[in-house]
Amino acid sequence: MIQRAAAFTVAAKEARLEHIVGLTQWLASPSHPSLIRASTGSSIGCFRRFPESRIRSSSPGFFAEDYFVTIGASAHLGIFPWMYGNSRNAPLQTRTSRGVAVAALLDPARHAGKSYRPTGPELLGAEDMAKAIGRAVGRSVKVVG
User: Fold this and answer.
1) CB within 8 Å of 63: residues ≥ 6 apart
2) Sign of the four-CA dihedral 84, 86, 87, 89
3) Rounded CA gap, 59 and 55, in Å?
4) Considering only CA atoms, which of 84, 81, 19, 27 is closest in space to residue 53?
5) How far is CA 98 from the centre of its chain?
6) Assuming Cys at both sites, which of 28, 67, 112, 141 could form a disulfide with 51, CB separation 3.0 to 4.6 Å?
7) Is 145 exposed, middle or buried (0-12, 13-18, 19+ CB in 10 A)?
């Protein structure tokens, strides 16, 4: 991750980018015990050479729309497949993250140095998500993992 961030920084400098928008994790920090969060936190330092806005997510690369693949199993079989143990998540909708990124890129002076967390007010566990999907599909939905 750090190598990719460094390569991006070099390319951005050569392209004379004026502002970047990064998608990162809430808990990203070079001192975090999780390797992915520590390397994300370390790579963020590469971007400080540019005016930057940051969209902070509980799990970058994991979006609300990713749950759509479970809707069929939930509606027809009453199950919610979950392989992430006791983790909790508040995934972004891609359209929301795009909207925040576009706003920051269109008005960089207003958004430079700011960080946004455009998710719901709480992290949800698998049981919470299964209940919400159950309400949406009109049946009881059980978590299976």
Assistant:
1) 91, 92, 93, 94, 97
2) positive
3) 11
4) 19
5) 12
6) 112
7) exposed
Total count of domains within the chain: 1
Helix (H) or strand (E) holding 10: helix 2-14
Q: Encode 81-95: b = buried (16+ Cβ within 10 Å), e = exposed.
A: ebeeeeeebbbbeee
CATH number of the CATH domain containing 24: 3.40.50.720
Instruction: Give the pLDDT means over successive 10-residue stretches in the chain (145 positions).
Output: 88 91 83 84 82 81 80 92 86 87 94 87 88 93 94
The parent domain of residue 105 ranges over 2-144
